TrEMBL record:
Pfam families reported for this sequence: Polyketide_cyc2
Taxonomy of the source species: Bacteria, Bacillati, Actinomycetota, Actinomycetes, Mycobacteriales
InterPro entries: Polyketide_cyclase/dehydratase, START-like_dom_sf
Protein name: Polyketide cyclase
Gene3D superfamilies recorded: 3.30.530.20
Domain of life: Bacteria
Organism encoding this protein: Mycolicibacterium aromaticivorans JS19b1 = JCM 16368
Length: 150
């Protein structure tokens, strides 16, 4: 069963190159994401590179790994979370005044059953958790905007 597409976007009054520099440094991910506490690439960031991640929600911490699936400088960064098959992406587009950034969570083939069971058991159910993820995406983009414009 396919999961809904989750998405947020923001307009940033800064050039694409500056926004890309902030976004493509995966060590910054904990600065942006309210859930991510660590995202460490195992080698140069390019398609196929794996990352080790640590996430947090309230008092619950859990490790994950992901794999960079797409890297188009100044245009797109995407990675697949190996535990649940979701693909997270950031797409950048120049605008008249700066950059539009769209953050998306794709789960075309659905989220793995074990992941959905865990979310239902400890995170208040899938619909609540997905709303929380979108809220987190909007917060992440606001933080990136503040850093790029600051």
């Amino acid at each position: 069963m396919a999961a809904p597409l989750l998405q947020a976007e923001i307009e940033i009054d800064a050039p694409v190159a500056k926004v890309w520099t902030l976004l493509s440094d995966l060590g910054n991910m904990p600065k942006w994401s309210p859930q991510c506490r660590l995202m460490k690439p195992l080698g140069a960031v390019k398609p196929g590179t794996r990352t080790v991640n640590l996430n947090r929600r309230h008092n619950l911490f859990w490790p994950t790994t992901s794999t960079i699936t797409e890297l188009i400088p100044e245009r797109k960064l995407a990675f697949r979370v190996n535990a649940n098959n979701t693909v997270w992406s950031y797409e950048l587009e120049p605008t008249a005044t700066g950059t539009r950034v769209v953050e998306t969570r794709h789960a075309e083939n659905g989220v793995k059953a074990v992941s959905a069971m865990a979310v239902n058991a400890v995170m208040g159910g899938v619909p609540n958790f997905e709303k929380e993820l979108v809220d987190g995406m909007n917060l992440s983009l606001a933080r990136i905007k503040a850093a790029a414009e600051g």
